Amino acid sequence: MASASRRMIERRRRRQLRRPRVFKDRSNPLEDLEEDEIFNRYRFRPQSIINLLSLLPNIARSTARNHPLPPLLQLLACLRFLATGAIHLLIGDALNISRSAAGYCIRDVAEKICQLRQQFIKFPTGQQVSDTKNSFFRVAGFPNVLGCVDGTHIPIMRPKENEVDFVNRKSFHSLNCQMCCDSNFKVTSCVATWPGSVHDSRIFRSSALCLQFENGDHDGFLLGDSGYCCRSFLLTPFLNAGSPAEQRYNDSLCRTRVIIEQTFGILNRRFQCLQKGMATDPKMASIYIVASVVLHNYGIERRDIIDIDRQQPAPQPSFQTPPNQQIANDGARMRKHIVDTFFSS
């Protein structure tokens, strides 16, 4: 009893003692590491990181502390998490900050990056439309294409609410994210809020991109796989090609549509948090996904993620919509018109 009493008194005494604050050495990784080492750890080169910091003017957090975290360190913590998917404790150890501080930085900076989505995730308009169509035509000779659309499953931890809705067809919890890309692997539309059990076609029908095409805001086609319903603006392959022309159509569509699969591969390799899964709730996971897509497009514009060959593509032949007005709502007729016009000979 006496020893137990002494231990209790000792614990109380320790709790009453004020622990001195320890200020860790917060050196600048951009100054201590080589350029290639910075790129391997943060997926961007130093100049791109500094430029990205200038796009986030409100990144500094108000605090009553005498030694607040500098904005650059906060940005690096977020980039390190998105690049590796590591737990917050490891991120904090790598930058000499606490686990809780790393968590705050990652969440706050990711939300700030998401606010740039209108600037970096944009569907082509104006002169970009003609350039996009010509670029896609150069890939496999498919005319009048504005983008390739598909869904990808991003693993997440088991949510506390509506857990069954997030179980996908492969029996793990995920968000089903719909993305559309151009021929340069740049994401032009991103929807990252649907549970994994929702089908790709339903996500597209409910998306703003589908509504824009239905309202006639875009003059061109999207290419999708057989999981989508064939529409006048969303072309899918023939399940059973009945003629050589239909087979050539399928081959051209598949060679063009593979760009969206390659885009998913680039995203998963560069931002491994998307591949390993995120131990957070679906709402926060959606923010991390959008932030990764924004950074992906930012890196392409800076030529800092993938070096795109920007040769001038050969102009594609002019596309004429058939005079039959009923074809506007008939995907099968539009698909047959494409086959007869461009793949019959």
UniProtKB/TrEMBL annotation:
Transcription found in the keyword field: no
Q: Where does it sit, as one GO cellular component term?
A: cytoplasm
Predominant location = cytoplasm
One Pfam family recorded for the sequence: DDE_Tnp_4
DDE Tnp4 domain location:
149-297
Q: What are the record keywords, sorted?
A: Cytoplasm, Hydrolase, Metal-binding, Nuclease, Nucleus
Its annotated compartments are:
Cytoplasm; Nucleus
For activity, the cofactor(s) needed are:
a divalent metal cation
Give this protein's Gene Ontology molecular function annotations. hydrolase activity; metal ion binding; nuclease activity
Keyword Metal-binding annotated: yes
Q: Which family does it belong to?
A: Belongs to the HARBI1 family.
Q: Function of this protein?
A: Transposase-derived protein that may have nuclease activity. Does not have transposase activity.
Q: Which PANTHER family match?
A: GH03217P-RELATED, PTHR22930
Q: What is this protein called?
A: Putative nuclease HARBI1
Q: Which organism is it from?
A: Pinctada imbricata (Atlantic pearl-oyster)
Organism classification: Eukaryota, Metazoa, Spiralia, Lophotrochozoa, Mollusca
